[in-house]
Automatic annotation (TrEMBL):
<dbReference type="GO" id="GO:0005886">
    <property type="term" value="C:plasma membrane"/>
</dbReference>
<keyword id="KW-0472">Membrane</keyword>
<dbReference type="GO" id="GO:0005811">
    <property type="term" value="C:lipid droplet"/>
</dbReference>
<feature type="domain" description="Saccharopine dehydrogenase NADP binding">
    <location>
        <begin position="7"/>
        <end position="138"/>
    </location>
</feature>
<dbReference type="InterPro" id="IPR005097">
    <property type="entry name" value="Sacchrp_dh_NADP-bd"/>
</dbReference>
<dbReference type="GO" id="GO:0009247">
    <property type="term" value="P:glycolipid biosynthetic process"/>
</dbReference>
<protein>
    <recommendedName>
        <fullName>Saccharopine dehydrogenase NADP binding domain-containing protein</fullName>
    </recommendedName>
</protein>
<dbReference type="GO" id="GO:0005739">
    <property type="term" value="C:mitochondrion"/>
</dbReference>
<dbReference type="InterPro" id="IPR051276">
    <property type="entry name" value="Saccharopine_DH-like_oxidrdct"/>
</dbReference>
<dbReference type="InterPro" id="IPR036291">
    <property type="entry name" value="NAD(P)-bd_dom_sf"/>
</dbReference>
<keyword id="KW-1133">Transmembrane helix</keyword>
<keyword id="KW-0812">Transmembrane</keyword>
<feature type="transmembrane region" description="Helical">
    <location>
        <begin position="266"/>
        <end position="288"/>
    </location>
</feature>
<comment type="similarity">
    <text>Belongs to the saccharopine dehydrogenase family.</text>
</comment>
<dbReference type="Pfam" id="PF03435">
    <property type="entry name" value="Sacchrp_dh_NADP"/>
</dbReference>
Length: 427
């Protein structure tokens, strides 16, 4: 009988998959794990190269051959493990067959998707079936959704009162020398192009997924101007275009519907050091958005990523030197009311002006291919070790909903490419 593994990393020969294999050496300690993909030669090369880098002999690591286009191979793969770590994106094109195979096999599934259409479509189509099979399907398990969604959980655990709203400010930079070369791998660019091109799909998906809107508790969190200076982070800010807010609000809705918890309002922003940079990014975003609306524009963006990203995107991805010098911080400021007998029921409408604030920071290095891979693997470990602390018997969930009562945050803090959660101010 073939040994059943704890974890299989699928898509291990891809850019993110290779770095996930490297982090697995330290994160999956004392667990039985293997790698999977469609090309054995490439998978063996990954084990050899990563082994040399880590100073370990990985050649005895189990290799499973599986192909997105071969449903039987996916089933054979998912039946071999308890949790599948899926690094095979863009998930819009390649995610659903793997999710379907995991549910049929009774295998948990985690991935690093930042694609709202994919994540919410999977919830719409497979949430009930996943619950029936006692399977957890959790997306958005990397940077930047883990800092934002688990940051909300960290805030509530430390607020000592009722949180009304949170503003999140993402900063990133490169230390120790010029930020030369590409910053992001082509796969992320491809996901962004298609995600923005088909963003209109979200309205229809959400109308089916959430026929009833969340209640609006006062005071409402107002949107900031398109470009503004924030004293919280001493920088120039723009609305953050990523999936953070959509992931967070899915978790907040889940906690409201399942546990009767007052949903927290949240807006997300990205920070720049100068008005000039922020204005240039705004102009680029407008151009990028317009091009994604037309097939010809998408073709150009995908064919010439270096040109249209001013060298920030490449098929080769960033150098290891640049990755290790890249750092990030997510500063989150919460506003609400201190704990009292009057507001012990957080679903009550509170008329007083919010007076309590809590500011926290989540930070780390190598966000795209270090922190992301560590976070992804930590979610797999948490499912294996603490499923009894997770909600219900399974389902298609965002990370905040799935891991709110687990020790995922402390697990993330153990690793060199993990994340640090800290309180900056509590007033």
């Amino acid at each position: 009988m073939v040994e059943k593994l704890d974890v299989i990393i699928f898509g291990a020969s891809g850019f993110t998959g290779t770095y996930t294999v490297y982090e697995a050496i330290s994160v999956l300690t004392n667990l039985r794990w293997g790698i999977a993909g469609r090309n054995r030669t490439k998978l063996e090369a990954v084990l050899e190269d990563v082994g040399v880098k880590a100073g370990k002999n990985l050649m005895s690591t189990p290799i499973i051959i599986a192909d997105i286009d071969d449903e039987m191979s996916l089933l054979q793969m998912t039946k071999r493990c308890r949790v599948l770590v899926n690094c095979c994106g863009p998930y819009r094109f390649y995610g659903e067959p793997v999710v379907r195979a995991c549910i049929e096999s009774g295998t948990h599934h985690v991935d690093v998707s930042g694609e709202p259409q994919y994540m919410e479509t999977m919830q719409l189509r497979y949430d009930r079936e996943a619950q029936e099979k006692n399977v957890y399907i959790v997306s958005a398990c990397g940077f930047d959704s883990i800092p934002a969604d688990m940051g909300m959980i960290f805030i509530e655990k430390n607020f000592d009162g009722v949180v009304n709203s949170v503003e999140a400010y993402l900063q990133s930079g490169v230390k120790g020398g010029p930020a030369d070369g590409a910053a992001i791998h082509y796969g992320t660019w491809e996901s962004a192009v298609y995600g923005l091109a088909y963003a209109h799909e979200l309205r229809g998906i959400r109308s089916q997924l959430y026929p009833e809107k969340l209640p609006k508790f006062q005071p409402l969190l107002k949107h900031r101007p398109l470009i503004f200076r924030s004293e919280i982070v001493n920088g120039i800010c723009l609305p953050f275009p990523g999936s953070d807010r959509s992931v967070v609000m899915r978790s907040q809705r889940f906690l409201y519907e399942k546990e009767g918890k007052r949903p927290i309002q949240m807006h997300a922003y990205v920070v720049f050091q100068s008005w000039f940079t922020a204005i240039c990014v705004t102009c680029f975003a407008i151009m990028f958005g317009m091009m994604t609306k037309f097939s010809f524009g998408r073709c150009l963006l995908l064919k010439y990523p270096k040109f249209f990203s001013m060298g920030m995107i490449s098929h080769e991805g960033p150098s290891e030197s640049r990755m290790e010098r890249t750092h990030f911080s997510l500063t989150m400021k919460a506003l609400g009311w201190p704990k009292s007998e009057r507001n012990s029921n957080s679903l009550k409408e509170l008329r007083e002006t919010p007076t309590k604030t809590l500011t926290v920071k989540i930070s780390g290095t190598n966000p795209g291919y270090g922190s992301t891979c560590v976070a992804l693997l930590c979610t797999a470990v948490t499912i294996l070790k603490e499923s009894e602390k997770m909600p219900g018997n399974g389902g298609v969930l965002p990370p905040g909903a799935a891991f709110a009562k687990t020790s995922l945050i402390s697990e993330l803090e153990k690793h060199s490419h993990g994340m640090k959660f800290e309180i900056l101010a509590n007033k």
